[in-house]
């Protein structure tokens, strides 16, 4: 085989190698684009899921917006619906000094499975938000008793409140007025924003410096 033939053969092999390389690059580029497209579709689906979850939570909250949960009402083994109505009415009218007409109540029932060792909480659905807040505004009259009244919230809101309660206690310990409204924390009438807490020196009676949380002011809390 002559040198010219060898060189021609090498050129042919180089061309084949170049063709294979170009095909491999083209396939790789195609796969990379498919991965990018899949990631984009996945991000869009994730965004859609988050939006739908938000709408579901909103619908759940709207459904529960007139509901109250009452703790501490004794439950008898032979308790009938009318007995429960009498107990709840006595609590609202006699202890909270509020009005509660039959037309104010959409439904009333015990929550969860019956437990002979523990009285179940009572959930009551009211016909108007006005009646709900009238009852809530008088709940301080139950201080010192085993009874308590709170709003009914969706699972997501309850989880958020669980996260905010320690912070609320921390704020109160620092001498601030901190309250939870649904899944929002208000400090001295201002909406608390996450990651906005910063340490600031506060003088104590002993003249020492301690750390007290500060926060970004956002908007005023609604007063009911």
UniProtKB/TrEMBL annotation:
Keywords: Coiled coil
The keyword Coiled coil belongs to this UniProt entry's keyword annotation: yes
Gene3D superfamilies, per the entry: L1 transposable element, RRM domain (3.30.70.1820)
Annotated segments matching region Disordered: 197-224
Residues forming coiled coils: 3-69
Protein name: Rho-associated protein kinase 2-like
Gene: LOC103523761
